[in-house]
Amino acid sequence: MLAAPPAGAEVAKATPAAAAVAHERLWLGSAWYPEQWPEAAWDEDLRLMKAHGANVVRIGEYAWSRMEPAEGQYDMDWLVRATRLAAKHGLKVVVGTPTDTPPAWLTQKYPDTLQVDGTGKTLGHGGRRQFSISSRRYRDLSRAIVTQMARALKDEPNVIGWQIGNEPTDESYDPEARAAWVAWLKQRYGSLDRLNAAWTTAYWSQTYTDWSQVPFNTDHANPGWMLELKRFITAQWRGFHQNQIDAIRAVVGGNQFITINFGGLGWANRFDRYEMNRDLDFASWDEYVGSGHLKPWRAGASHDLVRGWKRKNFWVMETQPGFVNWAGVSNMLYPGETRALAWQAVGHGADAILYWQWRNARNGQETMHGSIVGPDGKPLPIYPEVQQIGRDMAKASAALAGTQPVSPVAILQDYPSRWAIDFQLHHRDYDQIEVLLDYYRPLKDALGAVDIVEAAAAPLAGYKLVVAPNLNIITDAMATRLTAYVRGGGHLILGPRSGLKDEFNRLETRRQPGPLADLLGGQVEQFHALDEAIEAGDGKAVVWAEQLSPAAPDTDVLLRYGKANGWLDGKPAVISRRAGKGRITYVGALVDDAVMKRLIDTALRDAGVTRAFAVPADVELMTREGGGRTITILVNHGREARDVALPGSMTDVLGGGKVRKLTLPAEGVAVLQQ
Amino acid sequence: MLAAPPAGAEVAKATPAAAAVAHERLWLGSAWYPEQWPEAAWDEDLRLMKAHGANVVRIGEYAWSRMEPAEGQYDMDWLVRATRLAAKHGLKVVVGTPTDTPPAWLTQKYPDTLQVDGTGKTLGHGGRRQFSISSRRYRDLSRAIVTQMARALKDEPNVIGWQIGNEPTDESYDPEARAAWVAWLKQRYGSLDRLNAAWTTAYWSQTYTDWSQVPFNTDHANPGWMLELKRFITAQWRGFHQNQIDAIRAVVGGNQFITINFGGLGWANRFDRYEMNRDLDFASWDEYVGSGHLKPWRAGASHDLVRGWKRKNFWVMETQPGFVNWAGVSNMLYPGETRALAWQAVGHGADAILYWQWRNARNGQETMHGSIVGPDGKPLPIYPEVQQIGRDMAKASAALAGTQPVSPVAILQDYPSRWAIDFQLHHRDYDQIEVLLDYYRPLKDALGAVDIVEAAAAPLAGYKLVVAPNLNIITDAMATRLTAYVRGGGHLILGPRSGLKDEFNRLETRRQPGPLADLLGGQVEQFHALDEAIEAGDGKAVVWAEQLSPAAPDTDVLLRYGKANGWLDGKPAVISRRAGKGRITYVGALVDDAVMKRLIDTALRDAGVTRAFAVPADVELMTREGGGRTITILVNHGREARDVALPGSMTDVLGGGKVRKLTLPAEGVAVLQQ
Amino acid sequence: MLAAPPAGAEVAKATPAAAAVAHERLWLGSAWYPEQWPEAAWDEDLRLMKAHGANVVRIGEYAWSRMEPAEGQYDMDWLVRATRLAAKHGLKVVVGTPTDTPPAWLTQKYPDTLQVDGTGKTLGHGGRRQFSISSRRYRDLSRAIVTQMARALKDEPNVIGWQIGNEPTDESYDPEARAAWVAWLKQRYGSLDRLNAAWTTAYWSQTYTDWSQVPFNTDHANPGWMLELKRFITAQWRGFHQNQIDAIRAVVGGNQFITINFGGLGWANRFDRYEMNRDLDFASWDEYVGSGHLKPWRAGASHDLVRGWKRKNFWVMETQPGFVNWAGVSNMLYPGETRALAWQAVGHGADAILYWQWRNARNGQETMHGSIVGPDGKPLPIYPEVQQIGRDMAKASAALAGTQPVSPVAILQDYPSRWAIDFQLHHRDYDQIEVLLDYYRPLKDALGAVDIVEAAAAPLAGYKLVVAPNLNIITDAMATRLTAYVRGGGHLILGPRSGLKDEFNRLETRRQPGPLADLLGGQVEQFHALDEAIEAGDGKAVVWAEQLSPAAPDTDVLLRYGKANGWLDGKPAVISRRAGKGRITYVGALVDDAVMKRLIDTALRDAGVTRAFAVPADVELMTREGGGRTITILVNHGREARDVALPGSMTDVLGGGKVRKLTLPAEGVAVLQQ
Description:
By secondary structure, chain A is an alpha/beta fold. The first copy, chain A, has 18 helices and 24 strands. Chain A has three domains: 16-110 and 135-169 and 239-400, Glycosidases (TIM Barrel), CATH 3.20.20.80; 409-607, 3-Layer(aba) Sandwich (Rossmann fold), CATH 3.40.50; 619-673, Immunoglobulin-like, CATH 2.60.40.1180. The longest helix of chain A is centred in the middle third of the chain and has 30 residues, at 223-252. Chains A, B, C: It catalyses: Hydrolysis of terminal non-reducing beta-D-galactose residues in beta-D-galactosides.
């Protein structure tokens, strides 16, 4: 066994009370940048926030040059004044650390802190995130400014928590990062022989005889090397954040929560988000629609993914007040759609909705982005809709406090497998997020929010059905966990490409699903990238199909290919086997929606999973449970009104009174309590 | 107020007589490179030029290594011989300075003169324009060679003028350019506080505490910084050219004109062409069709733009004799199309048509380009058509001498606004040249050539209608000028996105149109990038629509949106208000051709602008006036013959005699005098 | 005349007996990498190879780090053991030199051996071919390892030959390569005056006054310079290979053959493959289908091209066992298609089919590539089909030994012309390979394999028809050869763009076809890139059309344009003239398939070329002759069975017995002996 990754353990957290504040009610607010405006304008800004129902404001995260205009000369007074003015207006504060935007003096004096990108180019001042996450000096400078901030704000009662940096993205390839890489490899592998064996460096004469020979750039394509680099990047990011977390905790103790806003790319996989979240009190992300309009399945799955990072409710730390500035077409959402988006987020486990941003800076990269007030400080047309959300939340907050989505089904997600497939697509149209969504859509239609959780670590015993659409890498430990789940009575469905690789992204010497082949009583004889659609049952398979073969007498063939490419004609496409008290099923192809729906419906029925009541097309039904309450949230994502019949009389939390049926207009929302 | 840009003033010019020679007749000729051929071949080249009616030849502009084969060793004798041989054939000469192509010895000895592009790459020898416009040494070397040329040619009577370099394009990012940038910033802003305020550097911690911290590359995206960089580049180019102009004037005095050929990208905006033209006697450009065939609206607008750079007639310094070598499909124009192109150019104010090139070099980057004679020195199939143009010009030159297009309507153009919109498109399909052409097309159909002039400086009083399709930046000075124009009786039409920004590309704190909102009596509540077409009046709006609101009681709503995206449904799309003796109209959307035509037709009718007579589709009617003469040029751009009825008897300048009606074949041309 | 290119002469070869072994039978096998697997697994690998009928195995070509784990420490024992184990199983061995993959210690210690690509980027360890072909040190290190290998294996009786490196691709732009470039230029041109004249450096002031000024990068676009760079690259590659060939020959003498696998891009033109092949015993290449399925015309032409490199049979050194890993869609071939592909290759002159690869490495860049056994060492579904090929070859090998395709028609190919056209396409859709295939398709339908041979050197006298579809450069020597061919009774057909350039890629001063214009009795007046299809005879011309004009009284117009772009209307498109005992024809346009078929059919009929018998659509008929035998190979490339009637009774080599007709199933193959 290899040495465990460094820093994998959970670290000190906020006290339960401080952490709980994030979930004790629904939060509404925006990002606000007082440093961009004359202090005389602050009061009116905060008054207008309060007037639309905000209860929180996010400040500070890009203001390093304002807080430390010259090295070691700190000015936190303005920050304290802004915080206290927010308190005067009844607004809580989340403080962002400014480490995404080092000041110009810092970059000028310490060019060794600059990021070197994968092409070898050194970044410069003027944008964001030009620093190296691996720079010791940058970490020290970060610790110093963050410590000063914590000292200034630790006793401000309306400061409820901290956000570290904002939207972590790129790693660095500078010499210091290279040294860290070599150290990482030594710790992980212990000897070059083990590294050479794990990566099969005999291939193409890649054998390393000195640690410093191992490449460190983005050109390389040995899948073993590539996977290890991802693990290293994750660890570097984690260390970068931990440094600041330690600094804050050293000052504020456990009285304020700490989160990271992981940005708008929920499915991004530049680093392992499960690892990154271990050190946080809860997860945050950005929900941006960009061009066009909300895609409910995709957005719902993103929320469920984020909720799964820590298996608890989360914050939407940024979302668009109407439109963004960076999309191909930065159109505005429809009237009501911003509200529908907020309530869908809550239905999937969001406890906070923060808009980016309150008011546009007069210059800088994002002046054209949507905001709630204009550069004139006056409400824009979106303001009344945000005010409506404020009124909604005031009504629903108490009912929803302490509740969260509860799912009888889990979808397994695994960053190593994500990387492994993406490194070697084999078919340009193999989009594993779409593969996951193929399973997610019928599950969400049946269940509302669905847990999307970490394949390697999430407890599975409580789930009636576990679906692993893309488990390309199945480690021995994972195989043990999954076997125990099945034998204990669960139903595990594996998608195509499962179990092809081991933990080093090395081909298994057993055919797929590798360490689960015996449990399955069957294996994959050959995988096929498809250049044409083929028949699968009474539907179609596209892009990918595997030739399965049952080996055990009790392995059932659930689906066969029809007319195909010759090799697959009539061959098994889905096989399944009872094992212990449970069942394991292997789906070898990407099948069409109808075939998938039958597959999932059957699995749900067999597992005894049912839903309270049916809703029309376009209406999303979500449920949060907790504190003995079950809260139902309905959102009509369509452009037409829809009638919904309830299974009984329910309290209409937003509209008031009891209802047995209701009509949701386009973008309409209802919150119901049983 | 900030300090004015350096070198903004007009500089010494040719004497009136020397400058007037450019416009005293129609000029026809080509670019000729005697240095590429044995001297024995020169006479036949010049004889064939004269035989097709040429009266001018352009020489010298890439021959530095021939004129100065080693540092300080000048050989101008061949140039003088070529010039005198041209004189013998009755051809005038325009001399190009060779500074676009430094010799290999220069680049080798002085690598500090090399251009560093925006990615940090240093250019090398072998192409064109590998020098840095900011290199003091390169300017000195340029001055030396140009001085030698001027001395050699100053007394040659057939030398009528000079062209500086050829087709200016890229700036440089070398260390010397960086130093110039810092100096520029200091002069423009005086203090970093003012710079920081203008660019809102509080955003993303961009605050500069030392001048040398300000970035100088092409990665940066702060719109304030980006705009300033464009102004700096303009000034660098202007200084680069002024250096040579001074050198020539010091030798030849005011006896020969000086121009620059700005190249084939009329709408290019790498630098401010108004600024660049201030130092010249007249403007020149390249008209290249490239793939396909002449697009009359686009070509006409390009000519009108170029005429507007100095508000006087111009030269087409290069155009294709049939085809080019660089287009995706370098097809040949139709028979007659080369002639139609020439006469359209004259109709829009060209006083010269020069072909590039006379004869292909046997090797080098452009051997496949169209030419008039082949590498065998014998006429190619295009030769007879060029000869026809020569005969035409011989007949029409006297009538057209001293005339120019006269337009009762102006379209305003502004490079800072061009940059501002392009920096932040917000909708990938927002093409501001297309937006301008939306207005231009109905105006050109109604008027022929239309003045396209500098928003910041062109006198407006004489125009009955002024259209500003893209005035994103409205400075206070511009607002004062436009207000005076309206109050004095003019009609100003503003297009979408007008008045969003100030001179630093900073959001106005008043809503659009910013400093003109009071005059308009209304404002833009919100702009919308459109992801779907919406109704506007009885037509459609696409890509962009703004929600307008009248504030003054006398502000009229001329057009409303119909069914739209919810926000815009029924809202005003065009508002207008009488102000003083005039009127201001704001058009908030990109509307379809029919809606635009009604808008423009109404504005023309209200302004009392009418046209002499109507012409069929595909026939372009252009008028030049001067010296008491009105010359009408008709070109049939279509593929079918067209009959044109004249309003009375007119002299057929090309065909001879008087006509009251005529039939134009495909690509047919007529020149008529009343 | 310029000095001849260095190293142009043929070099020492294998003895006739050693060279003949490559063609003495049909060879079947795979690439095998014992260094990637425990030695205990080798025997089973070799057993399974033998069991499917393999008789050869390729080893060694990427195992440098295994053979020389530290500098000067050689370990060849494993290689000898693997070779002897192969012998035990009756398998011959082809040894690959490992110089495509320098070990990490080498790159680390000698960074001066690294390749600098055309953008100036230095490559690093971890992929393939990161070395500089111009590095003296790398050549020395290569010679050392290759010498050690030769010493270890020279007396192993089952070693039949060597492969130098694998798939040569990129040259290097490092300082040492630059010095070699300057030396090359001095030798080629003797003086800068000659170089300047050849490249017309008077154009754009490119004149060189010092050898070191000449650019050496990939930015430059002077066509003369570009062509010379290609010649230099060819010479560098040739020298790189010759170094190893000399090392091997010094040890093994003439007892083993030497080849190079030129990779999968048969039509690639990074260097001149005729030059590269002069030093080899025979040519090898990779046949990879990639996405989709076999395209018989394209594949056949590729084989014919490769056969033409040395005008003898060749080896398919790599081909896909079902699928690849690098295509957009890496789909599997149909059942039977792998076999059909192998037999088409044999029909076009392949004497060996080697699969890449036997067994996937567990990690490394190509783990997903098709193979014959899996990482578990057990047969994959493709195995039985490969076994079928083994059985086929066992039956057919004796009949085919010593035979090769014989073609009465030659297509001329010329790398300088290839480069010249590609450097200056003039029309983005001008694809000269497609132009060649336009001629090839009707020729192949009529003849089976067609010789595609070197325009500059292949003997022509034996051909009844010679087609030069793309002879853009016609040197004086080539003109002499072609004139002699025509005058001697041959028929030469020239395609468009012929004879535009001389050997320096310089425009001819005679119009096309330049030095052949007098023979043709006509010339090209003007070439036209077409932006629209035009009429040509009763068909169409697209992309390119030239206006031809007969000058001699006996020049015939075979085809005229109809309605075209005005210039070409009614003008000659194809002209032809009897000259001496033969004929020369010039085709000025890219014509449609029907027009081309008539043109070719007429030429074949006039030349008296006929075929033995007709086959249905989709069935390819190929013939190999030798040793008094004529062997016919039929392959049905279609998806339906096809009946073929034979001209008489023939021996069914694979099926046994005599047949007069047969039915070929989809992907069916027959080998027939008369």
